Amino acid sequence: MSRGAAKHVARFLCRLLVIPHVLVYRLMALVQDPDRAFHGASQAISGIPGLFGETMRHEFYRMTLEECGLDCCISYGTIFSKRGARLGHRVYLGTRCNLGLVTVENDVLLSSNVDVLSGSGQHVFDDLDTPIREQGGVFQRVTIGADAWIGNRAVVMADVGRRCVIGAGSVVTKAIPEDSLAVGAPARVVGRRGLGSQRTDPS
């Protein structure tokens, strides 16, 4: 059997194996908030190790996310909190990432422990007489443009343009224009891709 054929067989078998996970999620979504049910299912499938786990997760999310492209790698410990998330083709998500209401376009690379929030307004805290958890908030879609690379332990709460590189540990609070190199907390643009003297490794 060729390598390509073996890959297709493995995907088919993993798709069969994740069907019970999908059914449990669908049933739980009938009796509780669907996003909460989805988050729980995401946690359950995140802890399967190795290549087997990566294939299981890919097949699970192809059946449950709003969009999940081909040849995505969703590494161990990575969790989604919103079923409306969208993944393009050939996306790589490193270990223990946490993603909310996001669109991750084609060929994006997320290093380990990257958090992509559902915008910066998830919690309102203006009223001192009301607990923060009761004040609500706004969930906004955050888009990471195609061919962007986000370094380890970055926190992203605003759009990142195509072909950007975001340095490790950076906190993106405002939109980053395409082709930018950005670092810091809050992240600021320090250069442009394509200028060899300004390239830095964000890992």
What does this structure look like?
It is a single chain. It is built from three helices and 16 strands. The chain is an alpha/beta fold and 203 residues long. The chain starts with a helix and ends in an 11-residue tail after the last strand.
Task: Quickly describe the structure.
This protein is α/β, with parallel strands linked by helices. It has helices spanning 3-31, 34-46, 50-64; strands at 67-68, 73-74, 79-80, 86-87, 92-93, 98-99, 102-104, 109-110, 115-116, 142-144, 149-150, 155-156, 165-166, 171-172, 180-183, 188-192.
What attributes characterize this protein structure?
UDP N-Acetylglucosamine Acyltransferase, domain 1, 28% helix, 16 strands, five-stranded parallel beta sheet, alpha/beta, seven-stranded mixed beta sheet, 203 residues
How many individual β-strands? 16
**In the CATH scheme, what's the topology name?**
UDP N-Acetylglucosamine Acyltransferase, domain 1
What global shape is seen? flat
What is the average of the pLDDT values? 91
**What is the ordering of alpha helices and beta strands?**
HHHEEEEEEEEEEEEEEEE
**Which range best describes the helical content: under 10%, 10-25%, 25-40%, 40-55%, 55-70% or over 70%?**
25-40%
CATH homology superfamily: Hexapeptide repeat proteins
What characterizes the major β-sheet?
Answer: 7 strands, mixed
End-to-end C-alpha gap: 37 Å
Number of helices: 3
The fraction of residues in strands falls at 15-25%
Major sheet strand order: 2-5-8-11-13-15-16
At the first level of CATH, the class is: Mainly Beta
Broad structural category: alpha/beta
**Taking Cα atoms only, what radius of gyration do you get, to the nearest Å?**
18 Å
Spans where pLDDT lies below 50 across 5 or more residues:
none
- What is the total number of structural domains? 1
| CATH architecture classification | 3 Solenoid
